[in-house]
């Protein structure tokens, strides 16, 4: 089984280029099902999850072509089936994002219920509530969600929680509905804005993405488009933390600084110098890491996808830090793994209390989800001796070429078959 071997590596230095956003390209690929013409999409990251989504689109009848290294052409002229089977949905939870496009374009969708995962049960009640509000009949049977409608009609919908996936699925379903949908308490993540921009570039009519209130005016038909995916703010944040944690000085290229404000603020609070430019950010570590308290929140709050990476860095802070995870009910799976490396931590409910000044030593650990896996790499860069990380397929889902990129910054890291 493939492993990642990491040894202590101080002072990461040099330049690193961030790829297109995983959490943007996945809903955008799903949204190509709304359009019968060619969608050309640039800056596609080379990730396992993208391959899974492309396989699903092809299974539904879309034509998917890789024209250049990071460019895909998707044409969903004829959707040959509106059923997304277990074999495909079970590989990746985000596959459920095809439900909204299928329902609104074909007036029916049969999608296998996505499972939970290591970080939580990951329910879909808010997605289904939105589809019901828009006028679809929902039946759950044999593990499938079966939605049918004569025609979706625009409605006012209030989300009990600003769920990213539910916001995306409802936006896509409302795009071809009759009339206007007003979505309240919507998620405000940059990936929602990128999805809305993509749909509008096809002739959609979405206003307010990136705010809590999004208005979607239904249109009859969409047309061909070309789009470039926004940079991955979580990949960028991960390398920012790796640079800060190892006492490094790294230029992170292809970023949108405004998407990184909560990460920048917390790193500055920890004593890190951050220089912001138009599309890059320089991260210069301070002499020590100051303790900081973190509470994960929906955007523009501190992203839950960054708390594990900060935990690795705060292991060496000169004081106590508290991390409060409010988004997922079980996102401290990495705590056990890091504890075996010597992390001084106490978990009380949804908070992890880090005593700081932990002297980490290399150990055999396993990645429990993609962000925890990235955090274990950072912990390995700080630990004396050698850290062996297994179940690295988790990491490959969200980070293309992470080993090569870190080697280029001077890290002692390699794959081992
Ligand atoms: C997206 O997941 C991201 N994935 C996640 O990134 C990210 O952690 C999450 O948003 C929060 O920012 C993609 O974009 C592909 P949610 P999503 O719906 O849409 C509850 C990564 O590491 N909820 O905003 O599934 C849910 O249980 C991944 O890249 C309901 O209760 O997240 C959770 O507690 C991990 N009912 C909270 O909302 C619902 O119908 C946030 O979930 C839907 C969600």
Please characterize this protein's 3D structure.
- By secondary structure, the protein is α/β, with parallel strands linked by helices.
- Helix content is 31%, strand content 24%.
- Strands 22-23-1-24 form a four-stranded mixed β-sheet. A four-stranded mixed β-sheet has the order 2-15-17-16, with helices on one face.
- The mean pLDDT is 96.
- The chain binds ligand EPZ.
- The site of ligand EPZ has 23 residues, from α1, α5, α6 and α12.
Could you give the count of β-strands?
Answer: 24
Largest sheet: spatial strand order? 22-23-1-24
Provide the low-confidence segments as ranges: none
Contiguous helical run count: 14
- Whole-number mean pLDDT: 96
Strand content: 15-25%
Q: How much helical structure, as a percent, in the residues?
A: 25-40%
Biggest sheet: strands, sense, closure?
4 strands, mixed
Bound molecules: ligand EPZ
The chain-level structural class is: alpha/beta
Task: Specify the overall morphology.
Answer: elongated
N- to C-terminal separation? Answer: 6 Å
Task: Give me the secondary-structure topology.
Elements: E1 3-7, E2 13-17, H1 22-31, E3 38-42, H2 48-59, E4 63-68, E5 71-75, E6 83-84, H3 86-89, H4 99-106, E7 108-112, H5 125-133, E8 137-141, E9 144-148, E10 156-158, H6 164-175, E11 180-184, H7 190-201, E12 206-207, E13 214-217, E14 225-228, H8 233-245, E15 249-253, H9 261-269, E16 273-276, E17 280-284, E18 294-295, H10 307-314, E19 321-324, H11 333-339, E20 345-348, E21 351-354, E22 364-366, H12 370-382, E23 386-390, H13 393-398, H14 402-407, E24 412-416
Helix pairs in contact: 1-2, 1-7, 4-6, 5-6, 6-7, 8-10, 8-12, 10-12, 11-12
């Amino acid at each position: 089984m493939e492993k990642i071997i990491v040894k202590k590596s101080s002072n990461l230095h040099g330049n690193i280029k961030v790829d297109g956003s995983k959490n943007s390209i996945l809903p955008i690929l799903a949204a190509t099902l709304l359009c019968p013409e060619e969608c050309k999409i640039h800056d596609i990251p080379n990730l396992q999850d993208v391959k899974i989504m492309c396989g699903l689109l092809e299974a539904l009848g879309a034509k998917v072509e890789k024209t250049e290294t990071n460019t895909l052409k998707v044409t969903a002229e004829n959707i040959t089936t509106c059923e997304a089977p277990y074999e495909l949905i079970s590989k990746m939870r985000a596959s459920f994002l095809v439900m909204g496009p299928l329902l609104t374009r074909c007036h029916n969708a049969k999608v296998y219920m996505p499972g939970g995962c290591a970080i939580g049960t990951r329910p879909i009640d808010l997605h289904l509530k939105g589809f019901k509000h828009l006028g679809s009949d929902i039946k759950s049977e044999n593990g499938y969600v079966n939605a049918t409608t004569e025609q979706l009609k625009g409605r006012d919908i209030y989300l009990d929680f600003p769920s990213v996936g539910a916001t995306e699925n409802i936006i896509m379903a409302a795009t071809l509905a009759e009339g206007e949908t007003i979505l309240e308490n919507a998620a405000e993540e940059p990936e929602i804005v990128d999805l809305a921009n993509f749909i509008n570039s096809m002739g959609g009519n979405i206003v307010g993405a990136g705010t809590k209130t999004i208005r979607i005016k239904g249109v009859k038909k969409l047309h061909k488009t070309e789009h470039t995916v926004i940079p991955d703010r979580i990949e960028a944040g991960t390398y920012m933390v790796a640079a800060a944690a190892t006492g490094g000085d790294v230029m992170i290229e292809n970023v949108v600084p405004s998407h990184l404000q909560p990460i920048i603020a917390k790193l500055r609070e920890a004593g890190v110098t951050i220089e912001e430019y138009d599309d890059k950010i320089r991260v210069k570590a301070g002499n020590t890491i100051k303790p900081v308290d973190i509470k994960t929140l929906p955007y523009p709050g501190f992203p839950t996808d960054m708390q594990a990476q900060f935990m690795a860095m705060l292991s060496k802070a000169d004081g106590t830090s508290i991390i409060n995870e409010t988004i997922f009910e079980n996102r401290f799976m990495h705590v056990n793994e890091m504890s075996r490396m010597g992390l001084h931590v106490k978990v009380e409910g949804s908070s992890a209390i880090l005593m700081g000044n932990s002297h980490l030593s290399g150990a055999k650990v396993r990645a429990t989800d993609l962000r925890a896996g990235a955090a274990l790499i950072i912990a390995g860069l700080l630990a004396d001796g050698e850290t062996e990380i297994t179940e690295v397929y988790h990491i490959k889902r969200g980070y293309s070429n992470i080993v090569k990129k870190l080697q280029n910054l001077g890290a002692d890291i390699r794959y081992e078959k």
